[in-house]
Amino acid sequence: MIQFVIDVVIRSVDLALIAIGLSSVYSLIRFPNVTLVQYATTGALVALGLQMLGLPLIVAGLLACVFVGAVAVVLNVLIFERLLTAGSAIAMIGSLALSMVFSAVFLVTAGPRPQRFELDLNPPIRFLGARFTDHQLISVVISALAIAAFALILFRTDLGRCMRATATNPVLARGTGINTRRVTNVVVFLSGIMAALGGIGISVKGEMSAHLGMEMLLPIFAAAILGGLGNALGAALGAVVIAVAETLVTNVNFGPLVGESFLFVPAAYATAASFLLLVIVLLVRPHGLFVSEVKRV
Amino acid sequence: MFEFLLHVAIMACLYGMLALSLNLQVGFAGLINFGQIILFGAGTYGAALAFANGFGPVAGLALGVAFSTAIAVAFAQLGRNLGADYWGIATLAVAEVLRILITNEVDLTGGAQGIAGIPLIFGDWPRPVGPLMTLGLCLVILLAAWWFCRRLTESRFGLALKLIREEPMLALSLGYDLNAARTATLVVAGAMAALSGFVFAHYVTFVGPDQLVAAETFLIWAMVIIGGSGNHLGAIVGAILMQFLFAFVPFVKDAFGAPAEYVAAMRLTLVGGGLLVFLMWRTQGLIPERIGDARPAPATGRPAAARMVEKHNG
Predict the structure, then answer these.
(1) Taking burial as the number of CB atoms within 10 A of a residue's CB, which of A296, B67, B84, B241 is the most buried?
(2) Smallest CA–CA separation between A179 and chain B, in Å?
(3) Quick one: chain B helix, strand, coil %, rounded to 5?
């Protein structure tokens, strides 16, 4: 049971980081930016590259996050601002197209084989019968801190107030003197940082490859949509729901239900579970489980 | 070389069908379908399952169309109360769930190994003649599909679709049933994609889940957007262009002596970069949608306001 909780926590914080980024950008510019999952992969690969150059992982990760944030802002100004003038559907298709270009760049620069961070191996920590590694612990703490920091920015600072104002009513926000374009780019920068952090977090616990981003696409979207696209903290809850579903499907013995002693669902169905959950929720609650718009300003 | 070109031409015809089908959804009904490839998969697995269970090709085609219709209706039901971007993600999710199911239900579908040995259409003929006749058949099917699509979109149904795409609320107020029109579009487009999949299965003789990855859907999207969404000829031109570009990527790789993953990278760049360039600088595509020239004689029972709105948009 404790192991189950820990597995869920480990999976959900990384999903949550990227899903929150997706959701908060959506709340400002009204289109789901698929490229965000590729920002996550970029963060992981850049951090790996910097680590290979001899930097300690923490420093490499920080630099990678800032780099990805900057890339996100540049692409937003160069590409998405232009695409958005043609409509949100066009912008979404454009973000898919850009993701494919990212995949091509990853294939050429990092190669098709999966890679890992160089981490020193320590015996796993035992806690109430559950096991996890020190790297998992550190990565979860950093991710959780990042989510908390984002929530603080959103609800306790002037910037956060401007963000929520822009999300609720952009015209009125401009009228009151908020530079909505700058606010949007700040949020895009933050979303890039969080995506990179999420990507690094996922890679620390497993592998990274050129395909990491596209594999994450649907779980991330499932989390963000479950939480109601545009609702940043809803996305965090959505990530928990997705992580629970994925972990449940693979870890629970369904044998007693059908009168056999053992029946485990194949691991490949873990992803299918989250997509299926997404489809079901969209059928029942088209705007997600939680309130879909940021209501308070 | 000749046989290779023949193969590319056949594939271009089959993708032309898929592009026509997606164009009907995207270009005319405004449906952002990111699960297009699973409608093609309905056709391939219809043919493969009929073959594996000892039925003939007619049963295979019927099974394929039955699958595609079921998926199309499910897509349409999902679209009842979803915004366009949510719906796009939902169709992508459905397509991926089905692909994962196909990969893992080994007993039924052969799993990742797929189903091989499906008979060729003109298998009794000698080598260059059989493929040539296949190309002829594909061309006939493609032209028939093109003619059908033109008839469909020039009809009042086609005009209703455009109205629903541009002004859904107005269409609703004029008494058009949005859901019925979208369902009909998806079913028709699904049957076209399934037909393409059926011919594909009987041409390459092998069917597997790797043929149904999401990247294939985005390739078809690139064909439609680059060719010109809302224009049937554009979709076909886009399909032929992308197929031939794809076919020559390996030669470029050999010329530069690049490693194998560069082929995948160059194809991704062609699809993604091509899409992006056209979306940013030429959204209407190579052959833009033609508005107003395909109008039928004024229909008697047609609401006057609807005609006025279309004139306005034109």
Answers:
(1) B67
(2) 25
(3) 75, 0, 25
In sign, the C-alpha dihedral spanning B165, B166, B168, B171 is negative
B29-to-B143, B151, B269 alpha-carbon distances in Å: 22, 15, 28
Question: Which residues on chain B are in Cβ contact (under 8 Å) with A268?
Answer: 100, 103-104
Of A90, A104, A271, the CB nearest to B269: A104
The amino acid that residue A273 corresponds to is A
Residue B255 near residue B173 (C-beta atoms within 8 A):
no
Q: Which of A93, A216, A229, A242 to mutate to test the interface with B (most CBs of B within 10 A)?
A: A93
The tens digit of pLDDT for each residue in B47-60 reads 999 999 999 899 99
- ipTM > 0.90, yes or no: no
B233: tokens are 């000829």
Least confident stretch, A10-19, A171-180, B77-86: B77-86
Range with lowest mean pLDDT among A15-24, A74-83, B102-111: B102-111
More confident residue, B217 or A31: B217
pLDDT digits (tens, 9 = 90+) for B89-132: 889 989 999 999 999 888 888 888 899 989 888 878 887 888 89
Interface test with A, best of B87, B100, B104, B224 (most A CBs within 10 A): B100
Average pLDDT over chain A reads 86
Q: How many CB pairs under 8 A join A and B?
A: 129
- Residue B79's pLDDT is 80
The SS3 of residue A131 is strand
Residue A297 binned pLDDT confidence (cut-offs 50, 70, 90): very low
> Which residues does chain A have within 8 Å of residue B104's beta carbon, measured at their own beta carbons?
266, 268-269
Which amino acid appears at position B139 of this protein? L
pLDDT at A291: 53
Shortest Cα–Cα distance, A252 to chain B (Å): 18
> CB distance from B265 to chain A under 8 Å?
yes
Residue window 164-203, chain A: list those with CB within 8 Å of chain B: none
Q: Which of B103, B266, B268 sits opposite A268 (nearest CB)?
A: B103
Average pLDDT over residues B59-73: 96
Q: How far is CA A162 from CA A70, A73, A76, A165, in A?
A: 21, 18, 19, 5
The pTM of this model reads 0.89
CA distance B285 to chain A (A): 13
Rounded Cα distance between B194 and B141, Å, is 13
Q: Which pairing describes strands A125-127 and A130-132: parallel, antiparallel, or unpaired?
A: antiparallel
Task: Give A19 to chain B, closest Cα distance, Å.
Answer: 14
The pLDDT tens digits of the residues spanning B245-263 come to: 999 888 888 888 888 888 8
Q: DSSP secondary-structure letter at B116?
A: E
Neighboring chain B residues of A276 at a CB cutoff of 8 Å? 93, 97
Q: What does the DSSP 8-state code read for residue B210?
A: G
A269 touches B at CB < 8 Å: yes
Alpha-carbon distance of A234 to B171, in angstroms, equals 34
Alpha-carbon gap, residue A105 to B262, rounded angstroms: 10
